[in-house]
Design brief:
Layout (H helix, E strand, L loop, with lengths): L14 E9 L1 E5 L2 E4 L3 E8 L3 E8 L4 E3 L4 E4 L4 E9 L1 E9 L2 E4 L2 E4 L3 E7 L6 E7 L4 E3 L4 E4 L4 E8 L1 E8 L3 E5 L2 E4 L3 E8 L3 E7 L5 E3 L4 E4 L4 E9 L2 E7 L3 E4 L2 E3 L4 E8 L3 E8 L5 E4 L3 E5 L7 E8 L33 E5 L2 E5 L5 E6 L4 E6 L4 E5 L5 E9 L2 E10 L1
Parallel strand pairs: 1-8, 9-16, 17-24, 25-32
Antiparallel strand pairs: 1-3, 2-4, 4-7, 5-6, 5-8, 9-11, 10-12, 12-15, 13-14, 13-16, 17-19, 18-20, 20-23, 21-22, 21-24, 25-27, 26-28, 28-31, 29-30, 29-32, 33-34, 34-37, 35-36, 35-38, 38-39
């Protein structure tokens, strides 16, 4: 020392680091640097589907189950917040059925598969709903992630939906709607002018039927599409007394048509006649073929004569056309012992068709009547709209094809 001296000692409060981390969560406060003796609050928030378990120190030893936690800083501090997945209760029930799997307790986020079944014939699962009645899914089984306590109900029903659609050039007339299991549905489509129904397709595009109407039993939800194509031509082929004929029906334009005449015993084939009045002679061979074009005749008659005779009954003469104009809409009035039909004053008259299975179609191919004739001179009250109709009849191997009659 060389003289009087003054000196001062300066002290500073120590600062310490508080290092916080979280497993399955996030630190929201407390992760910072603090002075000695400072009281701080450490807090952590859980990730979705988790809950807080405990704080541990740097060595992993348990410190506290409180969150947030308050403590005094006395040195560098390392703490970790631990969270665990939540446990969720899944409660399932069923209406008109039973639960087969999915009930139980699961950790948050687990994929759960709920399944239900029913012993009721014709019933199917319609939907799963939540506790509020909201629709969740129509799948069975239904798989979903658990994000909390869950209540679901499985609904079964024997009601099925028939949805009908029409492709281009036509429309659905009737048949769509709801049906009970096993009920009969009748799908009907109407083609635009110049077109006809080709087939009904299912949702997979498979062809089911070319019938129109198309009748089927409903055993599941159904989606059908009516497919149309450019119209075919109806070729009518009839036989005068003394024989029968085959080959009449619907044909695509451009196709080959073959009509064949078969004389009865004691008769021989004479000629084919055609046209509106069936008076135009077109061929003498019993088998007559032609290419169907738009200008071709659509009505043909096979004429027969008795063996040894010049002309048989009905040989070449028209049974229809203007000659029957006074019969209130009869386009075809049968001659003696010749099968046929005509319509007058709301009554369909069938002649010489006892025991035949009768079908009546419109010119577009829509079937409107189907029944068994119960007499050779039978009358049936019908409410048919005005138009031209086609009668087909079958009895064993016998066929009467494409006979036209008019309703005025």
């Amino acid at each position: 020392m060389k003289g009087d001296t003054e000196m001062q000692a300066h002290f500073f409060v120590n600062s310490y680091r508080v290092s916080l981390s979280a497993e399955n969560g996030t630190i929201t406060s407390g992760n910072d640097t603090y002075t000695y003796g400072r009281e701080i609050v450490a807090e952590a928030a859980a990730d979705e589907g988790h809950h807080f378990v405990a704080w541990t120190d740097e060595a992993g030893d348990w410190l506290s189950a409180e969150n947030p936690i308050t403590f005094t800083v006395k040195g560098n501090t390392v703490m970790r917040a631990h969270f665990a997945p939540n446990s969720c209760l899944v409660s399932l029930s069923a209406v008109d059925g039973r639960i087969t799997s999915g009930d139980g307790t699961y950790t948050y986020g687990t994929e759960v598969t709920a399944a239900a079944d029913t012993d009721k014939k014709g019933y199917h699962l319609v939907k799963w709903t939540n506790a509020a009645g909201d629709s969740l899914s129509a799948e069975n089984p239904y798989t979903f992630p658990v994000k909390g306590d869950t209540e679901m109900q499985a609904y079964f029903s024997n009601i099925y939906q028939v949805n009908l659609f029409a492709a281009e050039h036509g429309r659905i007339t009737s048949g769509g709607g709801t049906y009970t299991h096993g009920a009969g549905a009748v799908a009907v489509a109407t083609a635009d002018y110049g077109y006809h129904l080709v087939r009904w397709e299912n949702a997979a595009g498979d062809s089911l039927s070319a019938d129109n109407p198309y009748r089927f039993a409903v055993k599941e939800d159904v989606k059908l599409t009516a497919v149309f194509s450019e119209a075919r031509m109806l070729v009518t082929a009839e036989a005068a007394a003394g024989g029968r004929v085959t080959g009449g029906g619907y044909y695509d334009y451009g196709s080959q048509v073959t009509l064949t005449a078969f004389p009865d015993s004691g008769y021989r084939f004479a000629r084919w006649t055609a046209g509106e009045k069936l008076t135009v002679q077109v061929g003498n061979a019993d088998s007559y073929s032609f290419l169907l074009i738009r200008t071709a005749f659509d009505s043909y008659r096979a004429n027969f004569v008795r063996e040894g005779g010049e002309k048989g009954e009905g040989g070449g003469e028209s049974n229809g056309g203007e000659g029957n104009g006074g019969s209130q809409g009869n386009e075809f009035l049968p001659s003696d012992r010749e099968a046929g039909a005509y319509h007058a004053e709301g009554v369909l008259h069938l002649v010489h068709l006892d025991g035949y299975f009768i079908s009546i179609d419109t010119m577009t191919g829509e079937r409107v009547l189907q029944f068994m004739a119960d007499g050779d001179d039978a009358e049936y009250a019908t409410a048919l709209p005005a138009g031209v109709y086609i009668l087909n009849a079958a009895k064993g191997e016998e066929r009467i094809v494409a006979r036209k009659f008019v309703v005025k």
